[in-house]
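User: My notes are a mess, but here's the protein and adenosine-5'-triphosphate's SMILES. Can you give me a structure?
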Amino acid sequence: MPSDEPVLRVRDVRKSYRGGPVLNGVNLDLPPGRVVGIVGENGAGKTTLLRVLAGDLRPDGGSVRHRGRVGHCPQETVLHDAFTVEQHLRFFQVAYGLESLRRAEELLEALRFSGSRRARPATLSGGTRQKLNLVLALMHDPDVLLLDEPYQGFDWETYVRFWDLAEELRARGRSVLVVSHLAYDAARLDTLHRLEGGVLREQERVDAGVADRTGAP
Ligand SMILES: Nc1ncnc2c1ncn2[C@@H]1O[C@H](COP(=O)(O)OP(=O)(O)OP(=O)(O)O)[C@@H](O)[C@H]1O
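Assistant: No problem, the inputs look usable. Here's the predicted complex:
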């Protein structure tokens, strides 16, 4: 029987900058096979929280435990203009220790990546760069995927494909945590949390269904 033990367990996470506290005791359990959203206003601390969860930023207190592999798609793309698309894929293949680019190819196809593999990121559109950013975070098929505003710059079709992909991952027992300042896609989530005052609170999802699926990205 598959374990429902959390793939991500967050306890009393605290983080302050010089300007004052941003995270004031964040708690979260993310079981396998869930798509979870975190919303919050600009400056609420969403990016800070995701960086702490990804191990990119050390919290002042509290703990973060992962079970399995983590993928992190930061808000700022990780792409480097000295490298082509193909070189990015090869670089991450080596970094992740992957035998092939099979999964990366599937993801490029799923998101209808249209850029040339010989192109450098600066010559790609913002949405196309974001697709590559997402593929790089996902190509090792992580158990937990942490996404910071993942659909910025996506057109409507790509936005819908992104959610199809999230559903495919959930069906295979992967968990996806999506951070956004917008909550209109709540119907696509298993759980929605609001980050406010440095803590997470579970939100009532407005299951208007159709209404929730009509907002533009
Ligand atoms: N490296 C840093 N040094 C100092 N202050 C920071 C740093 N990073 C973020 N902050 C501050 O911490 C607060 C939370 O920032 P954060 O980027 O985590 O919020 P956010 O919810 O992701 O915002 P947005 O929706 O605008 O992306 C803000 O007041 C920001 O100015």
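The two ends are 38 Å apart (CA to CA).
User: Great, I'll file this with my notes.
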